[in-house]
Design a protein that fits this description.
By secondary structure, this protein is an alpha+beta fold. The protein is built from 19 helices and 28 strands. Helix 3 (72-78) links the parallel strand 3 and strand 4. It starts with a helix and ends in a 6-residue tail after the last helix.
């Protein structure tokens, strides 16, 4: 097997052949996706890093990998310090590192299909003072040395039923046409895979755990659409569903098609459309309108059918998770179980629902010290036994035709320590603070992030990730634009106003390096709230909890909780029993009833 050191050496040799002094390797694809197909896993192939966010910068004599606080421990476990420097994000940037370590006159390569136009311009500016050139490549040099690089997925496109989508594709495209009229634009380029899937009511299988198809779309001012996708992915049923208003082209024809917009006003998203698209439109003589993809917000505001579907998916998923949690409590303290065997058992429980289409991400099955890496990914090499005295963290989700789920629970293996109970209870208090928050319409997610942290801050503690992310409807498990996060955490400040119909996760945590990790995650729906006696002209919002599974009572210290917090927990557990209890039988149902019994002060 070729070592990662050998892969780095091979890349450097290829760069020398191309007369490049360095190269930037991001973890993304041509659609700026967070999760990518195997063919686009260049960062993982080069470095061994298994996380979902990161970038590498390679020079002739040094290299660095950039990751945020979620991966501080993981990157050190997976990437060799002999070859790579570990750089924290957002404290350090690729451009800053290159400016500090490259020499004047150096030529640093980048793939214009893997970076935004904004990144390119900012990086060019940052390197200019040092006389360092940023150079686009026509072919990615990593691909040249990745001998066994997998081909893009051949999975077929499927139809997402209008009854589950809640609106027809024609209606959605008409909305985009109205938006184009407001922008006085002739067309909009859609590059985000989930935007295309949502707009056309189609799904695919080209990215693991995310039901999207590798494609591009251009929507015209009359709502007609050009879809660029491999021809062998489309069958007659999909053609009939798309209709005559959607013209089909091969995916490889997309770049050339951009040359047809000479003199046209074309909208493209600076955050989601790569630099190569901006370059092609500019070269064609199009007038580029930098606008956010109009689908992003529309997709985030769930319609009644999507909300109903998610509720149904959450109930069946919660029942499967509850069966698993009981299995953990019964089977794991006796030994013989591992992180991988536990993940397999949970998958089997979800499959027994008869509705599971995929997991919504690689299950984070983490025991003991592995739980302290928020995005730990278990492999055959890292697989650890689940042992007494540990905390076992399970962060997982399912993809169902009617909804996407994401939930985290923690189980003690045996008797937890007082410190574990203290930390867990503080995380729970923060979770409840978000779940019960009431705020004015227009409040940004970043404004409520501190609610989740206050109980930890009061003990001199914190967690190095955001508190919540959006979620799709049988789409991406991480969906924008809504988030709950402060500026100094990965992704930066969550500046998008929260609106009724948005779904978010609520997942504060605490991580003690080398010992354990804690995270409690439910999904929430933003809903209108009436506050008695409040200003009648001020619209208020709050959250409805959508996830139902018991929160481990043996990890809770009731003495740390207020009466209102205990009342919320007990009321939540009443709902858990009411929603998922009918799907459980025998010992599973008895265990649920015991776990959800009222907790006294």
């Amino acid at each position: 097997m070729i070592t990662h050191a050998a892969r780095l050496a091979a890349l450097r040799a290829e760069l020398a052949r191309l007369q490049l002094d360095g190269f930037v390797v991001p973890l993304t694809d041509e659609h700026m996706s967070e999760y990518v197909g195997g063919y686009a896993q260049r960062l993982g192939w080069l470095t061994g890093f298994g996380g979902s966010a990161g970038t590498a910068a390679v020079l002739a004599d040094k290299a660095a990998i950039f990751t945020d606080g979620r991966y501080t421990l993981q990157v050190r476990e997976q990437v060799s310090a002999d070859d790579w420097s570990y750089m924290p994000v957002p404290q350090e940037s690729v451009a800053g590192w290159l400016a500090a370590h490259a020499a004047g006159g150096d030529r640093i390569g980048y793939d214009p299909w893997l970076h935004t136009d904004v990144w390119v311009k900012d990086t060019i500016a940052a390197l200019a003072d040092r006389g360092i050139a940023l150079v686009p490549v026509s072919a990615n040099p990593v691909d040249a040395v990745w001998i066994d690089r997998p081909a893009p997925s051949p999975a077929s496109v499927t139809v997402h039923d209008n009854a589950l989508a809640g609106r027809s594709s024609a209606a959605k495209r008409a909305d985009i046409a109205d938006w184009l009229a407001q922008q006085r634009a002739d067309a909009v380029v859609l590059t985000a895979l989930d935007s295309i899937a949502w707009t056309l009511n189609i799904r695919g299988g080209d990215v693991a755990h995310t039901p999207v198809a590798l494609s591009y779309a251009i929507v015209g001012s009359d709502g007609t659409t050009d879809l660029f996708v491999a021809a062998d992915k489309i069958n007659d049923a999909v053609r009939q569903h798309l209709g005559n208003a959607v013209r089909l082209h091969d995916r490889h024809a997309f770049a050339g098609a951009l040359s047809a917009y000479t003199g046209k006003r074309v909208a493209a998203d600076p955050e989601r459309a790569v630099a190569a698209i901006f370059d092609a439109l500019s070269a064609s003589g199009a007038r580029i309108l930098p606008r956010r993809d109009p689908v992003v917000l529309a997709k985030a505001l769930k319609n009644p059918a999507e909300i109903a579907g998610h509720r149904a998916a959450s109930v069946r998923d919660g029942a499967a998770l509850t069966r698993f949690l009981r299995w953990v409590e019964v089977e794991c303290p006796g030994g013989g179980q591992t992180e991988l065997s536990a993940a397999a058992v949970l998958l089997a429980f979800r499959e027994q629902t008869g509705c599971l289409l995929d997991t919504s991400f690689d299950t984070i099955s983490a025991t003991g010290a592995h739980g302290a890496s928020p995005h730990y990914h278990v492999t055959e090499e890292s697989n650890a036994p689940i042992l007494p005295g540990q905390l076992f963290l399970i962060d997982s989700g399912g993809q169902y035709a009617d909804g996407t789920t994401d939930v985290t629970r923690v189980m003690p293996i045996g008797t937890p320590t007082p410190e574990m109970r203290d930390r867990f209870t503080r995380v729970l208090k923060g979770h409840i603070a978000i779940a019960t928050a009431i705020f004015p319409d227009g409040t940004m997610g970043g404004q409520i992030d501190a609610f989740a942290r206050r109980p930890l801050w009061e003990a001199g503690l914190d967690f190095a990730h955001g508190t919540g992310h959006g979620i799709g409807s049988y789409l991406s498990v991480h969906e924008g634009p809504q988030r709950i996060a402060a500026p100094n955490y990965p992704g930066g400040a969550a500046l998008e106003p929260l609106r009724a119909g948005m779904m978010l996760s609520n997942e504060p945590g605490y991580y003690k390096a080398g010992e354990y990790g804690i995270r409690i995650e439910n999904l929430l729906l933003v809903v209108p709230v009436t506050v008695p006696g409040g200003d009648p002209d001020r619209a208020m919002l709050g959250f409805e909890t959508l996830t139902f599974a018991p929160i481990e009572r043996d990890l809770i210290d009731p003495a740390l909780m207020t009466a209102d917090e205990l009342a919320w927990l007990n009321a939540y557990h009443v709902q858990v029993v009411a929603r998922i209890g009918p799907l459980l039988e025998g010992e599973d149902r008895g265990w649920l009833d015991r776990k959800c019994a009222p907790l006294a002060p």
